[in-house]
Amino acid sequence: MAAVDKVVAAVSRSGVRLFQLVGSVPYTRLDGTATTLALWRGHCRQCGNAFTVATPMPCEGSRMSSKAFERVHCDDHKRGAK
Fold this sequence. Notes:
mainly beta
């Protein structure tokens, strides 16, 4: 993927977080059809380390909505992580 400048501001009960589009990956759905997932980088609310979430690829000019943007912690600080 070429240089990317897309940033999403995710707003939830826990505040506002920014996710930056960092790339894409091919994905095969359970029904066998091919698609592309967008990869977004966020930062852990506890330690500041980066983590990545995947969403369906956004369409130009569309509004992004995904539960993935509700994530606030890296793998080490997710609830229940040991």
